[in-house]
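Here is my example:
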Amino acid sequence: MNEFELINKHLMKLTFNKLPALRLNDDVFFDRKNNLVVSVDTYIEGVHFINFKKPNLAIKKIIRSSISDLICKGVYPKYYFISVSGSKKSLNKSNLKKIIKSLQEEQKKYKIFLAGGDTVFSDKLSFTIVSIGISKSIVYRNKAKINDDIYVTGNLGDSFAGLLVLKKKIKLNSYLNNYFIKKYFLPDIKFSLIQVIKKIANTSIDISDGLISDMDKLINKQRLSYNILLSKIPISFNLFKVLKNKKFLKKNFISNGDDYEILFTASKNKRSLIKKISKISKNKITRIGYIKKNLNKSSVLNGLNSKITLKNKGYSHNF
């Protein structure tokens, strides 16, 4: 059973069709009456972060990926709750000191505050984060329109390269090792775009599970499909060099998750505005495809407009 089957068959009825639950088909709870926006995420060692050898970095990855759910909706995160399950080994004094220091740094950087939480003893290390924002509106999922442009912020694939470095599956020089590991642990979430994303996006999501997986979620309840051009998907110069030197394929790096960039669609008449916003905010925003009628299946196309098959479309939540 996958995530959507679990929701549709078992969990949906528990919402009693209350509007703030958004039919459990978005990344947040949005209570318009009280301007309340909430997201919840759980992170398990070995699944959502490779290990806890770098607790100061792992906790930053966890916090950033959690508040990313609000940021891609055009909402400033304000408070967070953190619940931790772990052992005396994983939560020893040294690790706790590093965790607290990193949380202080993240709070200062993103202007958020700890509001509460819980601790539980367990041999399995995990963190659950509840992020809360205050807003009168959000950018929803499933609001794409036919002929919308598809955009993505930043670059994709660096985090996956960092994971491969940490798993010792690729060997690089020290500079590139450090670069990709940093990208894995410290995603560059687009805090500076919060105020403008609602002005340009018809629908949005953050790329957590992978470009294609999250694109499918973005329009999953609509009778629409998409074309994405592989050549337009942005990657960093460092990743370009690695792909060239190692003779790796770009298509195997661009949809593996943990990018935490914003994936959104926008009307064609917003192209000039988006270019202006990109320039002023100094945020890379790239048009990578377009939304079409559901006459054909969604596709990723190469330079010859031929459909290609991706080795990995993203993380799948199966039970």
About this structure: The mean pLDDT is 92. The chain has two domains: 3-134, 149-301. The CA atoms of residues 200 and 273 lie 8 Å apart. The radius of gyration is 19 Å.
